[in-house]
Amino acid sequence: MFFTGVASAEPTPIITVNELKTGMHGIAKTVIKGATIETFDVEILGVTGSESEGHSILIKASGPLIERSGGIAQGMSGSPVYINGRLAGAVAYGKAFSDPNYCFLTPIEEMLKMFEPNDPRPSYFLPKNTSLMVSGFSKAGLEYLSKKLSPFDLQPLAVPTGQKEELNNVTLEPGSSIGVELVRGDMRLGAIGTVTWMDEAGRILAFGHPFMKRGATDYFMTNAWIFASIPNVESSYKVGALGKSVGKITQDRSAGIAGQLGETPKIIPLFISVTDIDRGLHKTAAVQFVTDEALVPPLVDAICYNSVETAIDRAGGGTARVSFRITARGEKSGELTVTRENMFYNPGDLAKAINGEIVYATDMLMRNKFEKTTIFDINVDIEASSECGVSEITSVRAQNAVVKPGDKVAIDVDFLPYRGTKITKTFTFTVPKKQRSGKMSLIVRGGSSSAWLSAVLQNQQAGAVEEIMPEKKNLTDFIAGFNEFDANNELIIDVLPPGMSGAQPVDEEENPLLAMRTLFKGTNAKKTYPMDFIINGEAEITLTVEDN
């Protein structure tokens, strides 16, 4: 079997922890510049652990390479260590040594267990933390990405963009730099370590410690180019660039990562278009990212934030119109489509205001309780402005105060734009045909207004939110409800349910729980009018309904 980008992989003899003796000497292989594999000297200082807990091997590194790199550096993780030509393990773990030349190895026996059905034993030492190599992100975008990835204990590090042409002919072998990539395209994000072991079938072991310890994975495997190894007081680290995809990472366990050359991971493509209305500029970005359920929402969040921040190229607030479409397939539901259009305003950081619904939608698809779903693609279109596109409802009047079931009522609504003058628009509402005679209260509100709902909830008996929200029995219903949810730039006119403001019921059923659910979803009489500005505020009007 032939694999592109892989050197000839002859079986490597191994030396077990039981054969290792204090004072043994050997070499380790790694890359500290470009793609050239170099060696440094190692001395075995001892073996810790047990059969039940797993072992680790303490070594001391030395030689000119270690002097140049400032000790064992982040990115050397996975560097294979050979004793008398036999593979002992991978550079992996370090405690708070005052001397950076000391570190722990993960024995190769522990790493090979990643190919077995059972998980390898955990290690009880701290890994040499692997920095994320990031390109295509602005300074603000990188800071935002760091916050979003903090739960995964990942530390993004900006590196030069572009792929080195020299990597086109670089093959992987023990000691080569290897990349684990999460995002590729106009933005790139991944970690760099070192290949420890490989076989004729194209299987690879690397890192010697977990990347994120995600278990079974489906990430990009790349080759990599090292710019330099940077000495540091706490811990030296390599700075490099991710190269071309050469396979996929299939395991991320305590003992390291494992992968297969020549295979391609499943991906989610995302295309985002951003228009800066103020300057008349238009920018696009296209990326592919991995399908990890926990990573998709924060990655989408950071990618969209960075795209907007880069396009508008300024700090401060503003208004944005956001539309997106996500196509997916559920194991039970078949084809699924999530589509939304909404407007958002933020006075401090516009880029932060736009992502809430997109992140919620991806999280809903990836981690819903109903069924496993596969996202096929995500398309996002954003129009951004520095203006405050928000108007307040100041007054509402019905042109006819006395109506009959089925009548169309003209309702005048006064809006006050931010730093603007009052504007009046007229909307039509149809009285329900089954509306009983008596008083009928209408709520006129903006889609972004929640004050009316908060006031109602405060007057209700305490109860679980789940009992109030309309019940969703499957993913299709959940998505339909999300797609139809009120937008911030919509004017809503609806009948207030019975008991909410002296209103008469639309039908004979007087159910308080049903009435509360109606507040969230709206009645069958609900009318929605999209506007070109965000609407804040609400008002209530009461009409008298007479029998036909």
From TrEMBL:
Classification via InterPro entries: Peptidase_S1_PA, Peptidase_S55
Domain Peptidase S55: 1-127
Pfam families linked: Peptidase_S55
Name of the protein in its database record: Peptidase S55 domain-containing protein
